[in-house]
Amino acid sequence: MREFWYFAEPFDRNLVSLAIESGARVIVLKDHSKLQEVRSLGKITAACEGGDLIPERDFVHIVIRDSKDQERAGSYPDSVKVLVETTDWRVIPLENLIAMRKEVYAIVSTFEDAKLAFETLEKGVKGVVLKSCEPSVIKSVATLLSASEPPVELISATIERILPVGLGDRVCVDTTSILERGSGLLVGNSSSGMLLVHAETEESPYVASRPFRVNAGAVHMYVRIPGDKTRYLCELSSGDSVLVYDCKGRAREVYVGRAKIEKRPMILVEARSGNKKLSAILQNAETIRLVSPECGPISVSDLEPGVEVLGYVEDSARHFGIKIQETIQEK
C-alpha cells in the first residue's frame, strides 16, 4: 500500500488538520514541541523526536545533492524509512534508490512531482511526503492514493455451467465507501480465474439498494487486496482493505466496515475464456449480480450457458496470497 505523509514545515495547525482529514498516515515535525498539538487533532503517527517514529532510528531525512548522498541513502537497513529530498535532479536519484531499496519516500511539493514519484521505474516510491502550504495541493496529492493500485486487464468470459450446491457460508462485505454501478470485487475459487461480483447498487421491488455492499460469495474464495495480493473472504474484518474494480479494470482501495458470514443457498458459476476456467460460488439470489462486458449488472438468476461476463485471469500460483511461480492445479 502506498502512503501519503505530510511534512509540517512551517507548522500550521489548519493545514495539519486538513492533511489528516485527507488521509495522511504520518505527520513529520521539525518542531517536536508541536507533538501534543498534532495528537490532539486525531489518532495519527508522528515522526519527530519523542514521537512514534524517531529520527535516525526509524527514519532519516536525506537531501540528495551528489552521488555520495545517494549512496548514503541506499546504505540504511530496510527497517529504516528513507525520506529523500532531491535538488536539481529529480528522477534519476529516485530511479537509482528504488532499484537499490525496497521502500523509498520522496519529499515533494506539488501534485505533479508526487505523481511522477509514484510512476518512477513503473514500481514507484513507497510513499510521498508532501511539503506544501497550499490546501488544494494537499487535497490533490491525497487523491493519488486511491489511484495508486495498478489496473488489471479484465476479460470477457462465457458462462458454461450453473449448478446449485445447497447451503453454504457466504460473506457479505460492507465497505465504508459508496460504490458505483459497474464496479465490485474480484473473487474466485482460484486466484488464477476470478469473476467480478457487482456491488448492490441496484434497486428492486423487494430490496433497497445497499451501494456500500458486495455480497461476495462463499467463505473459501479468494478476493483481491492491495499490493497485488489475495485473501480468503472469511478472513476479512473491520478495518481491512480490499480492492474495488470498475468494468475497465481500474482499482480503488476501500475499507471493510463489516463482514457478515451467514448460511445461504449457494450456486456454482463456471465460465471460460480461451483455455482458462473462471469460477465462483455465490449466493443463489436475484440480488447477486456479475458484470457484463457492457458494464451492466447481470443477476445470477439470469445466467445461462453462452452469457458473457467480466473476469480476470493470471498465470501465477499464490502462496499465502502472494504470487509465486509454481505448478499448481485447483479444481
The H-and-E topology, N to C, reads as EHEHEEHEHEHEHEEEEEEEEEEEEEE
The computed structural class is alpha/beta
Helix content: 10-25%
Percent of sequence in beta strands = 35-45%
- For the biggest β-sheet, the strand order reads 3-2-1-7-6-5-4
Q: Report the strand count.
A: 21
Largest sheet: 7 strands, parallel
The total of helices stands at: 6
CA-atom Rg in angstroms: 23 Å
The average pLDDT value, as a whole number, equals 88
Q: Distance between the terminal alpha carbons, to the nearest Å? A: 31 Å
Shape: elongated
Low-confidence stretches: none
Task: Sum this structure up briefly.
With 331 residues, this protein is α/β, with parallel strands linked by helices.
Describe this structure in words.
By secondary structure, this protein is an alpha/beta fold. It contains six helices and 21 strands. The protein has helices at 13-21, 35-39, 67-74, 91-100, 111-119, 135-146; strands spanning 3-7, 26-28, 45-47, 59-64, 81-86, 105-108, 127-130, 155-175, 184-190, 193-198, 213-218, 222-225, 229-232, 241-245, 251-273, 276-283, 289-291, 297-299, 308-313, 317-319, 322-324. The strands form four sheets. It has a seven-stranded parallel β-sheet. The longest helix has 12 residues, at 135-146. The two termini are 31 Å apart. The model has no long low-confidence stretch (mean pLDDT 88).
Question: Any descriptors?
Answer:
40% strand, elongated, alpha/beta, 331 residues, seven-stranded parallel beta sheet
